[in-house]
Amino acid sequence: MEPTSVRVDAWLWAVRVYKTRSAATAGCRAGHVRVAGDRAKAAQPVRVGDEVRVRIAGFDRILTVRRLIVKRVSAAQAAECFVDLTPPPPPRESVALAPRRDRGAGRPTKRDRRALEKLRGRLASRERDEPE
């Protein structure tokens, strides 16, 4: 017999969103978990049909509860317990922010460092030290 509600931290751990139960509890305490749009405490019950938003590594995962489980199960079984409504991540820019140096090329030269600072929009050290 399935329960009618489960603690949100236990459910997130059981469906493998978090690696440990304590990590799920910490995520709830930090405000990274929302159930039906409201911040969720670790003991808040979650029911079938609820929308759970979890902020992990700077991105939101949007999950809709399909089945309630308390015990951690295999990844294949865990995937059947929710519907993932998370939008795909934005495409990575093909333009690199900084030029890549060959591995083992040593430290950047003064010329390389100045080119990097110019690319990043920072003032060169001489310009910063000059009085106005």
How is this structure best described in words?
The structure is a single chain. This protein has a domain at about 5-85: RNA-binding S4 domain (Structural Genomics Hypothetical 15.5 Kd Protein In mrcA-pckA Intergenic Region, Chain A). It has a five-stranded antiparallel beta sheet. Strands 1-4 form a two-stranded antiparallel sheet. About 30% of the residues lie in helices and about 20% in strands. It is elongated. It is built from five helices and seven strands. With about 130 residues, it is α+β, with helices and mostly antiparallel strands. A hairpin with a 2-residue loop joins strand 5 and strand 6. The mean pLDDT is about 85.
* Count of beta strands: 7
Task: Estimate what percentage of residues fall within beta strands.
Answer: 15-25%
Q: Ends: how far apart?
A: 76 Å
Average pLDDT confidence is: 86
Described by strand count, sense and barrel closure, the largest sheet is: 5 strands, antiparallel
The SS-based structural class is alpha+beta
What is the overall shape?
Answer: elongated
What helical percentage do the residues reach?
25-40%
Oligomer: single chain
The secondary-structure element order is: EHHEEEEEHEHH
CATH T-level topology of one domain: Structural Genomics Hypothetical 15.5 Kd Protein In mrcA-pckA Intergenic Region, Chain A
CATH superfamily of one domain: RNA-binding S4 domain
